[in-house]
Write a structure and sequence with these properties.
By secondary structure, the protein is of the alpha/beta class. It contains 21 helices and 21 strands. Strand 1, helix 1 and strand 2 form a beta-alpha-beta unit. The N and C termini lie far apart (76 Å).
């Protein structure tokens, strides 16, 4: 008699009750084990390995226990999967089709203890599809019910969980004031009423040592840092401090005590909106906003601060390592650090994110979400333009870390889902796009960086090269001038014939003496980004080709 190796798979959507000595997973396993024992005459043998997923929705295949089980199936270690009900395995028809395909390839099958039918017949397969359709319908109805419950509860002013704002502590379905932290919140509002500038409030917060809430345990601590610009803006605009609860764009009266008087809070919102309107009214404000402010760090962990200079009426924006700015007490700034053109950095980050969406995210999600959603997602990504949609794309970025030759980009979960139109599902009682896993939100992008004085220019490694048409044109003119000189003409005659100044001819003609390999790289657009006509005019290269190559390598 052939031995049939059986593996039991158990799952529970919520974590409620899992802490009990005998929980739902144990009950499922016991029922499945009894069923396997009843099939002993068929050669069924129970494997020792446990495949359990507690507190995970059946709407996704991204489950540790299930992935381990399917891995063992592919390796030929399991012949039969035993589940208490089919919806324990999956609640999605699309996911079920993928699982069945994997099982068929490995000559394995599955059985449900409480739902007995034969999938070898057409009627059995129809029954299975009907059951799975109802399971998927139940999951979707549950999602809608949870969303409606959250909306109704917030309408009543109840606290429905999440990160507790600074100044409060969770107290069941409401909040209670943390007196020590509430003083920090009050100080922020007082500072803003005094200065009417978040930047000045941040500077005062640093001077007064106003900090965020410490989090974590004795092994790792987070928070407990000086309030940043974003922290202060969040505090000033959060209606919770006025005794209210926000649900999407609607604000309801809350059942918790207010830290800030509602009238005072409304006045602050008016001043914030007035200041924002004034900022929007400035010329070119859309192009001068630093979209990556507070998000860019270098390899040492130092934050890059937005800065700018003016030349006439033109404004040039940069992101500069804090250590390059020096200290207020007059100490010399560190010579090592990043000074990047803001427009160029923002453009390269936006293009890197968009490229990640097209090359990696679409490919990964193709196997985990339905085909119609993939089509819609592809359309959403194709409609994004790195120039016109740059602010929306950069809004998705959570953190950008620069290292020599590489930038590491981390994306916000919810903002990315909103940008791409990815629908949310209920996971552990929370609505969120489960398909956007950490490996899809974190990625690396290689780039080239070139020094130009104190400024660094970065270019993505896979960005198409562009020929410097001005430099190529001047190369051609230089060879023309040289041929004219060889024919016996003087510079004055050449200047009169070409209608240019004698000085310009003397500047350009030096380009005719560049090494052949340097000329070839220019024609292919592979020369250093700083090797331009203006540079060569201001810094004539030596006549020796070896010296030319050494000089260009330093650019």
């Amino acid at each position: 008699m052939k031995k049939v190796r059986c593996a039991i798979y158990t799952r529970k959507s919520s974590e409620n009750g899992l802490e009990q000595e005998f929980n739902s997973l144990d009950a499922q396993r016991e029922a499945c084990a009894a069923y396997i024992a009843s099939q002993k005459h068929e050669g069924w043998v129970l494997l020792d390995n446990a495949y359990d997923d507690g507190g995970i929705s059946g709407g996704t295949l991204d489950r540790r226990g299930l992935q381990k089980l399917m891995g063992d199936v592919e390796e030929g270690l399991v012949d039969q999967i035993v589940v208490y009900k089919i919806d324990r395995l999956t609640r999605s028809l699309a996911d079920f089709a993928k699982l069945v395909e994997q099982l068929d390839k490995s000559n394995a099958s599955f059985v449900s203890v409480t739902q007995s039918f034969n999938t070898a017949t057409s009627m059995g397969r129809l029954t299975l599809n009907v059951l799975l359709s109802f399971a998927q319908f139940e999951r979707e109805v549950t999602s809608e019910r949870i969303r409606d419950k959250i909306a109704a509860s917030k309408k009543k002013g109840l606290w429905m969980g999440g990160n507790v704002p600074l100044g409060y502590e969770a107290d069941g379905r409401t909040l209670r004031i943390n007196k020590r932290e509430a003083e920090t919140v009050k100080a922020v509002f007082e500072l803003y009423k005094k200065h009417s500038s978040i930047d000045e409030v941040r500077e005062e917060a640093e001077r007064l040592n106003l900090k965020t809430r410490p989090m974590g345990n004795k092994h790792s601590t987070k928070g407990n840092s000086i309030l940043s610009h974003s922290n202060i803006h969040y505090i000033l605009t959060n209606p919770v401090y006025a005794g209210r609860i926000r649900h999407h764009n609607v604000v309801h009266d809350g059942q918790h005590p207010a830290i800030i008087d509602p009238v005072e809070w409304d006045e602050v919102q008016y001043r914030l909106s007035k200041d924002a309107s004034r900022q929007r009214g400035r010329p070119n404000s859309a192009t001068t906003a630093s979209s990556l402010k507070g998000k860019v760090f270098d390899e040492t962990g130092d934050r890059l601060t937005p800065s700018h200079t003016k030349k006439g009426y033109k404004r040039y924006r940069y992101y500069i390592s804090n250590r390059l700015l020096g200290k207020k007490d007059g100490a010399n700034p560190s010579p090592a650090g990043w000074r990047l053109s803001a427009n160029l950095l923002e453009d390269q980050v936006a293009r890197a994110v968009l490229q990640h969406f097209k090359l990696k995210l679409l490919k990964k999600l193709a196997s985990s979400i339905p085909a119609d959603e993939i089509v819609a997602l592809t359309r959403s990504i194709d409609e994004l333009d790195p120039n016109t949609d740059r602010p929306k794309i950069l809004l998705c970025t959570y953190k950008v870390t620069l290292r020599p030759g590489q930038m590491q980009i981390k994306l916000h979960h919810d903002q990315t889902a909103d940008l791409l139109g990815i629908a949310a599902v209920v996971v552990n009682g929370k609505c969120k796009p489960a398909c956007l896993t950490r490996d899809l939100l974190n990625f690396d992008a290689p780039f080239q960086h070139r020094k130009r004085g104190v400024e660094t220019k970065i270019i993505l490694g896979d960005t198409p090269v562009e020929q410097d048409k001005t430099l190529i044109k001047n190369l051609a003119m230089a060879h023309h001038y040289l041929n004219e000189v060889k024919s016996g003409k003087h510079f004055d005659e050449i200047a009169a014939d070409c209608k240019v100044s004698k000085r310009r001819i003397m500047q350009i003609i030096n380009l005719a003496f560049l090494a052949p390999d340097i000329v070839q790289s220019i024609m292919q657009g592979k020369q250093p980004t700083d090797l331009t006509s203006n540079y060569l005019v201001r810094h004539p290269l030596p006549a020796d080709w070896q010296q030319q190559r050494k000089t260009i390598k330093t650019l």
